[in-house]
Structures are given as structure tokens and as C-alpha cells.
Design goal:
By secondary structure, the protein is of the alpha/beta class. It is 32% helix and 19% strand. The protein folds into two domains: 3-85 and 233-392, Alkaline Phosphatase, subunit A; 91-228, Alpha-Beta Plaits, CATH 3.30.70. The relative contact order is 0.25.
Length: 401
């Protein structure tokens, strides 16, 4: 997307847009009826909305490429995720309002479980509660390494934040997470000579963390991901000429919203809390990003039935959202997380776009196979969704004479 072109075509309008992201929405069939989780779910409100919408499947990065949550969200916000890259460390830091300096190196950590032979048996340490996480972070804060200042803070559940502050640091490091159980954590490797010093510091931190956590089963080791430093990017509200707000309970999604310049609204942990936040702030913003996380978590846990139930819970919110009388609504996921695979996948994601100006298609049910035949096509580039929302909201001028 050409941000300068979009900025030059912005047109003020008294219209409201809502982007509802059901995290990890896309799936694969696993039940006897050969239905994905979304197809299995009873979603009368989404189905009714789909019948009035233009539907399709969107692809966050490219064919066959499995997106992380950060890149897929940047694509949803209109940023080319290949050009605009940032590690999860920065997103985690911004998500918990850490005062991140430009030269800091941030990393997202997972508490995990390892056997005596050092192999990982659970990458999420049984999803320990945040209270336990805070106890463990207090232990890790006692780690001392010469010539660097170390900050450790709780993110949520098994996730924590590591910040390194000092001279000559670089975020150009590989992850230590092997991404599968039965393997040992991978040593951090510098991606360039400028990162060798930082890699040595991270290795020291991990070695000391192993000793500190040795008796804290199931959270007896750490995995580090997304080493990065804060970038300087154009911001969403200025690019699109709108006042934008984010409603998200999980820190990483609050972080990516804050990174692109959205106002991040305080909200609670569950869907009801988020709905109340939306209703309370509806008059104050042009654009809302509304994120629902737990569908993705169920997919990662391989829990098909729980993912179905959570999709049904999200469906119940649609009628309440439509009572606010939005002008444009997009409902989709950031990526697919099939419970069959217990991970993100490369499969395109169902999407519907509703407005009074959309050309509705023949899709009559919101699901993967139905949306494949929709008017948006089977592989819409994700970065095209925001300009389509803007156009349907009457916020883009004609180009040329």
C-alpha cells in the first residue's frame, strides 16, 4: 500500500468502522461431519450478517507462509508485514506500557517445562497463572550481568518480558524457542556481527535463569522469542485520517495497536468487559479494532470443541455490536489456528465486509468453504481490507480528474 497516496485521498466523514478480529479463527475439519470449527459452530448472527455482506478469504503474508500474530495484525492494519517487521519483544513491552527506549533490546519470554536431559516437554509450562508468573519474574530480576541493565516483567500467564539496556546492543538475534516439544532450547545466534555481544549476554541470562528456576516445576526454564528494538514508523491515524481505538485484553495486541498509534482503551479480561468498553467509547472514535483472543488459545491447545464454543460465544456479541449502528463492519481472524495442528497455519482466513454500499454475494453462511466462493475471492491480500473499509465508509476521495 502507498501510504502517501492514501493520505492524499483521505476525506472526512461522520462514519463509524469496526474491525472485529476473532484470533486464530480459521481451522480445519476434524469431526465426523468433516467440518472446521467455524463451520461446526452455531453462528446465526454471523450467518445473517454474511448474507448481507461481501465475503472471502484473506491471506496475511503470501501463499504457504504461516504468519505470526504480529505480522498478521500489521497486515490487518494496512502495513506490508514484509516491509514493516518488528519482533514480539517490542510488542510485549508496549502492551504492558513499559517505557521502552529506542536503543533497548526487548524479547518475549515463555516460562516452559524441561526434563532433566534439557528437552522441552511443555512450551507454556501448563499455562501457569499470572500470579505465579509474577513470583518467577521476581526471581529472575535478581540475575546480574556486567555492563547491562536487565528488566523482567510479567506479561500474562506463562509470558514474560525481558529488556536489556546498555551500550552496543542489537536485536538481531534468533529465537531460543525450538517451537516443538522433545527438543532442547536453541542457543541464541547473532544475525550479524553487531549482535555478537548481545547474544553473549542473552546466553548468560538463560544459563542463570536455568539455575534460578531449577526447582520451580513446571516453569523450570525459559524460551526467548522476538528479539527486537523499537522502530520509527508512520502511524495509523495519520495515514488514514481517522481517530482510532483498540480494545484488546491481551498485552501483545495492545502493543501492536500502540505501536501504530491507536489509542489503547482500558478494558477487562472477558468479552463482556470488552463489549462494555466498546459501548462506553462508541461516540468518541471513528475506527475500532476489537480483539477476541481465546479462540486462538483453544486452537493451540488442540481443543476443537472449546474452539467451537468460543466462536459461538463471539457470535452472540454480533447483534449487540450491530445495535450501535456502525457504518462498516469487518469480521475476520488474524490467521488460522486449526486445532488439528495445534498451531498457526498458512491457510487463508474467512472474512466478511458489511456496509450499505457493499455488493453482497451468494454466501449464506460464515465458514471457510462458503467464503471461498465469495466476492472478495479466495486469497485477498490482507493489507487491502483497511482501504476497502475506508471506501465503504465514504472516507476516500476520487483519484485523478
Amino acid at each position: 500500500m502507498d501510504f502517501e497516496l492514501i493520505r492524499s485521498l483521505n476525506r472526512p466523514a461522520d462514519t463509524k468502522m469496526l474491525l472485529l478480529v476473532l484470533d486464530g479463527l480459521g481451522g480445519l475439519s476434524i469431526d465426523a461431519q468433516d467440518l472446521t470449527e467455524l463451520e461446526k459452530a452455531e453462528t446465526p448472527n454471523l450467518d445473517e450478517l454474511a448474507q448481507k455482506s461481501i465475503c472471502g478469504l484473506h491471506q496475511p503474508i503470501g501463499p504457504g507462509i504461516t504468519p505470526g500474530s504480529g505480522p498478521s495484525h500489521l497486515a490487518l492494519f494496512g502495513y506490508d508485514p514484509v516491509r514493516y517487521q518488528v519482533g514480539r519483544g517490542v510488542l510485549a513491552a508496549l502492551g504492558i506500557n513499559f517505557d521502552l527506549k529506542q536503543s533497548d533490546v526487548a524479547a518475549r519470554g515463555n516460562f516452559c517445562t524441561v526434563e532433566k536431559n534439557g528437552k522441552v516437554t511443555d512450551r507454556r509450562a501448563g499455562r501457569i497463572p499470572s500470579e505465579k508468573n509474577r513470583e518467577l519474574c521476581e526471581k529472575l530480576r535478581k540475575i546480574d550481568i556486567p555492563d547491562v541493565e536487565i528488566f523482567v516483567d510479567t506479561v500474562k500467564e506463562y509470558r514474560f518480558l525481558l529488556i536489556l539496556r546498555g551500550e552496543n546492543l542489537s536485536g538481531s538475534l534468533t529465537d531460543t524457542d525450538p517451537q516443538n516439544t522433545g527438543l532442547k532450547p536453541v542457543p541464541p545466534k547473532p544475525l550479524g556481527s553487531e549482535a555478537r555481544h548481545t547474544a553473549e549476554i542473552v546466553e548468560q541470562f538463560i544459563d542463570k535463569a536455568r539455575d534460578v528456576l531449577a526447582q520451580d516445576h513446571p516453569a523450570n526454564m525459559v524460551l526467548m522469542r522476538g528479539f527486537s528494538q523499537k522502530p520509527d514508523w508512520p502511524v495509523f491515524p495519520e495515514i488514514f485520517g481517522i481517530k482510532a481505538a483498540a480494545i484488546a485484553a491481551y498485552p501483545m495486541y495492545r502493543g501492536v495497536s500502540r505501536l501504530v498509534g491507536m489509542d489503547v482503551l482500558e478494558t477487562g479480561e472477558n468479552l463482556e468487559d470488552e463489549m462494555e468498553t466498546l459501548e462506553k467509547n462508541w461516540k468518541d472514535y471513528d475506527f475500532f479494532y476489537f480483539h477476541i483472543k481465546k479462540i486462538d488459545s483453544a486452537g493451540e491447545d488442540g481443543d476443537y470443541n472449546r474452539k467451537v464454543a468460543l466462536i459461538e460465544e463471539a457470535d452472540a456479541a454480533i447483534a449487540r455490536i450491530m445495535k450501535l449502528k456502525p457504518d462498516v463492519v469487518v469480521v475476520t481472524g488474524d490467521h488460522s489456528t486449526p486445532s488439528l495442528m495445534k498451531s498457526h497455519s498458512w491457510h487463508p482466513v474467512p472474512v466478511l465486509l458489511w456496509s450499505r454500499y457493499c455488493r453482497s454475494d451468494s454466501v449464506n453462511r460464515f465458514g471457510e468453504r462458503a467464503c471461498m466462493a465469495g466476492g472478495l475471492g479466495p486469497r485477498l491480500p490482507t493489507i487491502d481490507l483497511i482501504p476497502l473499509m475506508m471506501a465503504n465508509a465514504g472516507r476516500i476521495e476520487k483519484f485523478g480528474a
